Amino acid sequence: MSTIKLEVVSPDKVVYTEDIGMLIVRSTGGELGILPHHAPLVTGLVPHAMRVRVSQDRDEQLIAVAGGFMEVTPEKITVLATASEMPIDIDINRAKEAMARAKERIARFHQGQPESDGIDIERAQLALRRAIARLRAVGTELEA
Ligand code: ATP
């Protein structure tokens, strides 16, 4: 199986670096599967759990990404993430609390309560998607 180097970098560290067989990401334009020798590409990423297939005989590795950019060259994939965590580094309770806060803000916004005026709905929706990405990366069952 041919491989390509993947480097996932967040503002404070290199989160993951490995020679991999395939990466599946959710870009701003939809889902993309990147194999070795992919055509050069730069795209934005939305919050999600990236799926890494290192080799055929190993399980998929999930990596949470909060957003950012991906650059693909024939030799290397670079993910420049606004934040990214390996499942082992994810604080599940923190992500659940972030999800509950975001859901509560979104509900208040839609109910149009007087105190909903200051709610930035896009910000709340993105916070919800980041929390969901982290929980998916650790395999937490979520409602549809
Ligand atoms: P919170 O409201 O809990 O801070 P957030 O989605 O606003 O969540 P980010 O702005 O995406 O957080 O990330 C800020 C920093 O905190 C990053 O370094 C990120 O890796 C880290 N981080 C956020 N949530 C978690 C988590 N549940 N477990 C581990 N690290 C986290």
Q: State the order of secondary-structure elements, H for helix, E for strand.
A: EEEEEEEEEEHH
**Multimer state:** single chain
- The 3D shape can be described as elongated
Radius of gyration over C-alpha positions, nearest whole angstrom: 17 Å
- Give the tally of β-strands: 10
Name the structural class.
alpha+beta
Distance between the termini: 35 Å
Proportion of residues in β-strands: 35-45%
Q: Bound compounds, please?
A: adenosine-5'-triphosphate
Largest sheet properties: 5 strands, mixed
Description:
The protein has 2 helices and 10 strands. The protein has helices at 92-111, 121-137; strands at 4-10, 13-20, 22-27, 30-34, 41-45, 48-53, 61-65, 68-72, 76-81, 84-85. The mean pLDDT is 94. It binds adenosine-5'-triphosphate. Adenosine-5'-triphosphate (ATP) is lined by residues 66, 83, 85, 89-91, 94-95, 98, 127, 130, 134.
List the helices and strands and how they pair.
Blueprint (H helix, E strand, L loop, with lengths): L3 E7 L2 E8 L1 E6 L2 E5 L6 E5 L2 E6 L7 E5 L2 E5 L3 E6 L2 E2 L6 H20 L9 H17 L7
Parallel strand pairs: 1-9
Antiparallel strand pairs: 1-2, 3-4, 3-6, 5-8, 6-7, 7-10, 8-9
Helix pairs in contact: 1-2
Adenosine-5'-triphosphate binds next to helix 1 and helix 2.
List keywords for this structure.
144 residues, alpha+beta, five-stranded mixed β-sheet, five-stranded antiparallel β-sheet, 10 strands, binds adenosine-5'-triphosphate
Q: Can you give me a brief rundown of this structure?
A:
The chain has 144 residues and is an alpha+beta fold. Helices cover 26% and strands 38% of the residues.
